[in-house]
């Protein structure tokens, strides 16, 4: 099914907004990109975005949408955080995000980061009574979060490229 050109234009604009959302707080990122591609594929009855390409885009989308979680906590683990601290970090992230969401939604992302940092730091400090070790684990979390942003950006660019390639080949 051939869609009007404005639909393709709107789709590309939304994909770029999703790509910007990787670094802009409060703007959905790779998850938005996946939803936009899904809607486009459904609208054109998977004629351009074939099921195999869509499966690849789904894998990229899931990896990108969850990268904050697994890379942040991998960074904390590598820096010496205990399992308990990573769990406290997750609780802190949830609470920080919920509190941040109260500020017109834009505080959710910084709230998640600050909450997870506090969760890891407090847990590590209470467990080891060593503020330097707690700080090291927290820095690992932040480094993991930073790496996750880069990974999301790369995955988002791959998704955008794959989408454009599929549309251009028609």
Can you describe this structure?
With 170 residues, this protein is mainly alpha-helical. It has one domain. Helix content is 81%, strand content 0%. It is built from 6 helices and no strands. The radius of gyration is 19 Å and the shape is elongated. The mean pLDDT is 88.
Brief summary:
The protein is mainly α and 170 residues long. The chain has helices spanning 5-20, 30-43, 51-78, 83-101, 108-128, 131-169.
SS-derived structural category:
mainly alpha
Apparent shape: elongated
Global Rg: 19 Å
Q: Count of DSSP helices?
A: 6
Topology of this structure?
Elements: H1 5-20, H2 30-43, H3 51-78, H4 83-101, H5 108-128, H6 131-169
Helix pairs in contact: 1-2, 1-6, 2-3, 2-6, 3-4, 3-6, 4-5, 5-6
What labels describe this entry?
mainly alpha, 0% strand, 170 residues, single chain
